[in-house]
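$ run holo --ligand "pyridoxal-5'-phosphate" --emit C-alpha cells
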Amino acid sequence: MKSLSSVDPEVTKILECESVREASRLQMIASENYVSPAVLEAQGSVFTNKYAEGYPGARYYQGCGPSDQVEQLALERLKTIFGAEHANVQPHSGSSANMAVYFALLNPGDKILGMDLAAGGHLTHGAKVNFSGKLFAAHHYKVDPQTHLIDYGLLDQQARELKPRMIVIGASAYPRILDFKRFRAICDEVGALMLVDIAHIAGLVAGGAHPSPVPFADVVTSTTHKTLRGPRGGFILCRQAYAKKIDSMVFPGIQGGPLMHVIAAKAVAFGENLRPEFKVYAKQIVDNAAALAQGLMNRGFKLVTGGTENHLLLMNLQSESMTGAEAAERLEQAGLVANKNGIPYDPQGPRVTSGVRMGTAALTTRGMKTGEMEQVAGFIEKILRGNNDPERLKGIREEIAALCAKFPVFAY
Ligand code: PLP
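-- output --
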C-alpha cells in the first residue's frame, strides 16, 4: 500500500495547510485542543477497518477479540478517571451521548429544564432547532441579568413550578464553577433526574481542577476532544441502575457499529488523563485562563461575569463598539483563532453576537504559561483597538507566529 502523499497529493497538500494553520496561530477556540501523536496514531490505525456492533463479549460480528480488549481498556480507564459505576465509550459525539440519555430515560413530550442557549447552554439542552427541543417539552433557566451568574434560588423556584422529568446541567460558554451539590438538591426536591453534560470541563474534572459531578448526578455525558484532549467523540457515565437502558439505547437504539479506531484513541487519551502530568496540565489551563482574563481586564476589556474560574472566558465587546463577528474575523486575520459568541441577553443575533469566546486548553498543551497569557492579552488589545489595515494585521500575525514557534505543537 502506498502512503497518502503518493496516492493523493491534493489531500496531502490540504493536510499540510491545516498543520501549518494549527501550529502557527494562537488556537483559542474553547472547545478545541491538540491531541498527542499517540492519540493521532491510534485514531489513524487499522481499527478503522473493523465492524464491532455490540459490546465487549457480546458482539454481532466475528473477529472482535482485539476490539473487545481495546474497548474494555477504554471503559476501565474512564471509570477510574471519574470514579463512575458504569461507562459507555461508544457515542460518536457529545450530541449522540445526550440523545442516547434522553431516549433511554425520557418519553417524547416529557419536560426537561436546561440552561438557555443564549445564557451559555448547548443546542442539545433543549434548543428549538435541535432534536432535544423538538421532541421534548424543553424549558430553560437563564443567568442573572446583572451578574450573568446562574441564580440557583430562581432555578429552584422554576423547577418547583415546572416539575421537569430531567434537569440538564452544563454549558458551552459559562466561565464559572458549577455547584453540583446545589443542583442535586433541586433535582431531589422536584423528583427530577440529574444529567450533567461536562463536555467542556471534562479535562478539568479529570485533573481535579473543577469539582466532579459524578457523586451527585444520575448520568454524566461528555465529549472527549475538548479539555480532555482526546479524539473527537463522546461518552456516558451513569449509575448502575441506568446502565442497561443507556447501553441499549446507544446500540442498537441510535447507533450502529462503534468507531473502534476512535475508541482505541479514547483509550490512549484516557491513559494520558490518568498520568500525574495531566493534573498539572488541568491546573495550568485554569491558571492561564485566569491570567488571560486579568490581562484583558487590566486593559479595560469587559468580561462576562467579570472573569473566569475554568478554561474559558467570554469577552463582552459592547463597550468596544464592535460585534463578535467583526472581532473574531479581525482576530483571525491577525493569527488568533477564536469564535464569536452570544453574551447573556445579547441584543445581536447568533450570526453577529456581541461577544468572543476564548479558551486556554490548546495553548496550555503547547506549554504556554501565565507569562505568555499576558502577551496574548497584549496582542488582543493591539488587534482589536487598532485599525483594520491588512498590513498592520499581517505584522501582528508574524509576531504571533514567532511566539507560536517557541511552543511547538506535539505532532507537527
Ligand atoms: N455538550 C456541550 C456542553 C458542548 O459544548 C458540546 C459541543 O460543543 C456538545 C455537547 C456536543 O458535542 P459534539 O459537537 O461532539 O456533538
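-- notes --
The mean pLDDT is 97.
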